[in-house]
Structure formats: structure tokens, C-alpha cells
Amino acid sequence: MSYNPFIKGNYPVGVRTVELEGKDNTYTTEVWYPAAAEYRATEAIDKFKIVDELPEATQEAVRNARSADGKRPIVMYWHGGYGHRREMAAMCVFLASHGFVVAAPDFPGDHITFMYGADPKIANTPVDASAEARGRQGAEVIDLLADGNDKFLKPIIDRDNIGSFGLSLGGFTTLAVNATSARVKASLPIAPAYGSRSPLPQMVRLTKFLRLEEWKSPASTVVLTGSADALVVVGDVRELYSRLPEPKRLAVLKDAGHLHWGDSAELIHETIRLRYLSGEFPDPEIDGPAVGKAFRPFSELCPAEHAIDAMRSIGLAHFETNLKDCSEARAFLASNLAKVFASRGIDVEVSDPQVMTVGN
């Protein structure tokens, strides 16, 4: 195919951390962006460590690189519950290599560090408060970026073309933001937290915070999920999908679990699964051993590369269609995607194509 959304783009990628000052919160935000051509020959390995219990992580980006000239569409990444802004750095780098600015804030009072240490905060910090606030907080971050709050980013952001995506509670946030902001044109919720079938009691309680009938933005939405997700059950995602406004599309990856979509998927999956099984997971609401049993060993699930291929290709084409008006991306989404993925050995159920743009 002449349009190949499976491969990295032509831009070298820069990354920097910015502090966005909101009304009540300061949002520490990681930003990836197309870097100037001079960085093509630079070894682009940025290293970071989040918690002592996990190994040092890397991303293929140059810290504080000079940006390429021109304004770019911006895509927001919303992290999962008790996650962090760099949990999906590889996808953020991928999108930046294709000419997007990608911004990911840490949400106040909701961070991976809450799950670790001698006295983990998760035991006294239910995720409900974060979920209730996320739509408003996400909209505030979008406004701060679009309105030029950061001097470095102001000249490179196209404030009229904004998308967002997120995993788990970040997928929930992707949908919730559309009820508080009219700026988003394209949404990509991944395994969005929702539903009554989940072994996590929080999922049932979060549903009331999703005001799907109050969307201020007629965002084009593609939902990605896995058929073997133990936390966000595929039947609940199908129910959620039926409630979403059009245009919309659903893709279900066979034998993918909840954590297939993020960086170091197998490591994170097995680390969390074993913590659940041991009974050491510090959330008192969760029956850890039961949840651990619902998590199949990663070796029984599909390869992590299948989730990466599905997310990168569908996500990139979705954002290029809606934020860049790219005809080749639109044609890719309108093609027989299940057949395209099958040719790569990947089993994805994809709903029938619709007109996946708003106002074009």
C-alpha cells in the first residue's frame, strides 16, 4: 500500500516536560513533537524512571530538541488510573514522528507512585474522585495548550485541530472530555473504563460520570479493546459503543488483555497479575487473587506487537483523517481492515466503516 500507517514517520522526535498552571492545579505534562531535521543523526534515547520497583524506561526522542518549523495538530494522551504521563511513550513518539504534537499530563491525586512504597496511597485514595474531575481537568489542559500558556509550544500548535486518546481510565477520560470541551475533533478511547461486568467495583461507579448525551464536541470516535481484557470486559465495551454518538467505529483485538496497549506490555501485565495473585495489591476494594486468576498469563494471549500494530495504524489513520484531512488515511479506514490485519497475522474484528470525519 502507498499509505503505510504501520511504520514510523519521517520526523525525528523531540520531547520536553512542561508545567501548565491551571486555576487549581499545576499539570506536569510531557510533550512530544516533530524535531528539526538536524536531529536525524542524533542518538535519540531519552531515559526515565518512575518507581524503584520497575526498571528504567526509555523513549526514542531527543530531550529538549529544537522543534521543526510550522504549526501541527495536537493529540492529547490521558493516562490510566494510577498510571503516569509516559506510560504510552512509544505511541506518543510514533504520532510525533508523523507530524503531531502529543501532550500527556499527570492527573493530580492519581499516579502510579500511589501503588508502591511502604504505605501506598491507593488504599485511601479511591479512583472515583479522579474520574469525576477528569473531564474538567482534561478540558483545562487543552485550553492551556491551545491558548498559548507555554511559550515553546505556542508557535507549533494548531489550536483548531485537536484529538485525544487514552487507556483504561484514560479511555474514559477521552470520552468524558467531550462533555466539557468543544475543541476535540477525534477521539480514540482504548479499553475505556466502564461497565458492570468488571471484577473491579469502581467500574460500576464510574459509569455515572460519563455524560455521553452532553457532548459539546461531535468528535469522530474509534474505540479499541481486547477480547481477553479481564478488567474492562468486552461485553461492556460493546454496550458503551452502542451509546456513543456517530460517527463511530469499534475494533476488537482477539486475545488482547487490558495492558497490551502500553509500553513494556508483557512486563507490566505479568507484574500486575502476580501482585494480584499474591494478595499484595494495595487496593482494599479489589479481591486481588480473583482478579489475578482472571488475568491469563501473557503467554496465553496475543503478542504485544499485534496490539501495537492495531493501535498505531488505526490511531494514526483516524487522527490524520480528522486533523489533517488526509485522503489516503480516509481510504485506509474505509478499506476492509479485518482483511488488512489478517494479512499481517492479526485477528481484529472491525465494525462496518462509516464516514469517520465530522464536518468534512
Gross morphology: globular
Largest sheet: 10 strands, mixed
| Uncertain residue ranges | none
- Sheet/helix structural class: alpha/beta
Radius of gyration: 19 Å
Number of helices: 10
**Helical percent range?**
25-40%
Distance between the termini: 24 Å
Run of helices and strands: EEEEEEHEHEHEHEHEHHHHHE
Q: How confident overall, as mean pLDDT? A: 93
Strand line-up across the major sheet: 5-1-2-7-6-8-9-10-11-12
Which range does the strand content fall in?
15-25%
- DSSP summary, beta strand count: 12
Structure overview:
Helices cover 30% and strands 20% of the residues. It is of the alpha/beta class and 360 residues long. The chain has a 10-stranded mixed beta sheet, sandwiched between helices. A two-stranded antiparallel ribbon has the order 3-4. Strand 6 (72-78), helix 1 and strand 7 (101-105) form a beta-alpha-beta unit. Helix 8 packs across helix 9. The longest helix is centred in the C-terminal third of the chain and has 21 residues, at 304-324. It starts with 12 loop residues before the first strand and ends in a 10-residue tail after the last strand.
Keywords:
360 residues, alpha/beta, 10-stranded mixed sheet, two-stranded antiparallel sheet, 12 strands
Summarize this entry quickly:
The chain has helices at residues 89-97, 128-146, 169-176, 201-206, 234-243, 265-278, 288-294, 304-324, 327-334, 337-342, and strands spanning 13-21, 26-34, 46-48, 57-59, 62-63, 72-78, 101-105, 157-167, 184-190, 220-226, 248-253, 348-350. The protein has 360 residues and is an alpha/beta fold.
